[in-house]
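seq as requested:
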Amino acid sequence: MDVFGLLGNPVGHSLSPPMHEAAYDELAYDARYVTFEPAPTDLETAITGADALGITGLNVTIPFKQDVLDLDLVEPDELATRIGAVNTIDFEPDSSRSNSSGRATGHNTDAAGALRALREHDVTIAGADAVVVGAGGAGRAISFALADAGATVAIANRTESTAHDLAADVPDATGHGLDGTVLESLLAEADVLVNATSVGMEEDATPVPADALHGELTVMDAVYQPLETRLLRDAAAAGATTVDGAWMLLFQGVEAFELWTGQDAPVGVMNEALRARL
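struct tokens:
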């Protein structure tokens, strides 16, 4: 039996176990997905123990995504290094590890998850003008993903200096604040808008004025609880294409599954299992 899991603190709310377990059942794959909740000071011990126990792969969530990079146990791939966060660890047998160190490999599937979520809705990324609201962990992953796929990215953040710092790392990106008419100006000619903040999760609020939205936009919200945020309601009312946050959550899991197993994920089954819990 292969064992996969999620490393974070807390993890009791996670929707990853039912999504991955549904995939195993569909493919008759002898595996289990479990959650691990070490103390923040025990991250290194937890990863060492997982490798020693023969665990095949781990997803990594808050508060450990950045901390993994500081350990000498996991070698991040190029994209995870650029993003500055690891959310998936692949424990391959030493003899088959592709990196030179022989360590486990760290990846960031949030980036590919965002792209696959947009492409699932027939959104063309190459040549698009994209606006990403938020310059935190999700904003970093999404901004790099969009830029690497050929979009021109404008990053807007409440703390403007943070947006400028991220834009300096992302190819050909620009950084902006959120005051005044900044978003209205950025969105006037934009093709894609992504909310990478938590605004809309705890209250019926939106980071984007409704009158800045238009029918030529595709609007994706990284918030998945609730599925229909105020931003997405406003976008639908403006005639925009909407992509709820569960799609990004789904496809980051799909990417991890395919990375670990080398098999095509049963996307439909995983999607049904995920949405049944939302």
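The longest strand covers residues 2-7.
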